Amino acid sequence: GVRLQVDAGRGTVLRLAGSMTPLPTLDAVLLTHHHSDHLVGLADLVLSRWLAGAHRTTIVAPTGPTARFAAGLLDPWAEDIAVRIEHAGHGGPPAVDLVDFAASSSPTEVWGSEGVTVTAVAVHHEPVVPAVAYRVDGPSGSVVVSGDTVVCDEVEQLARGADVLVHEVRLRSFADAVVGTHYEAISAYHADAIELGAAAQRAGVGRLMLTHF
Fold it and tell me: What is the pTM of this model?
């Protein structure tokens, strides 16, 4: 019964609508790091939840740029919010309930509700610091979401015995085809598919799901 959204890239609200997930039913949004492709849909998500009747959105984020972004998320929308309240009321303004935590190489419990716990660990997406992965454990199983990172021991340990590991990946063949461009730098801080498969096997995860190609 607990519903969590990890990051909010472009089209997040539309994807949630397409999956028949009512926006007010989200319990929390977990943010992994402050890259724009992971955050550009966050204001849309918070404001759309507000218009759907959910006035407060819990956002969990590592202390630093990501938490600061979340804290100031609604500032650029102050005049929009004000005119909507004047016009239709909406029962007051939207708000972000920020839960920030210090990212650590040791797994740290950062959120929990109704028998579900969320644990975070710092990952390696340098020079983007901090960046974290999350593990969600509950009565029906466990899911780990890597965020953006190279293949690293921290995620492998966090994912040990998990039912599902959702991990970002780059394809070596694609990276090799564009060597000499800015993609070479980009590929250096993403996970190699072959190394990732080996790490998932060592961790004994039930299913590996690849994302962020």
Answer: 0.95
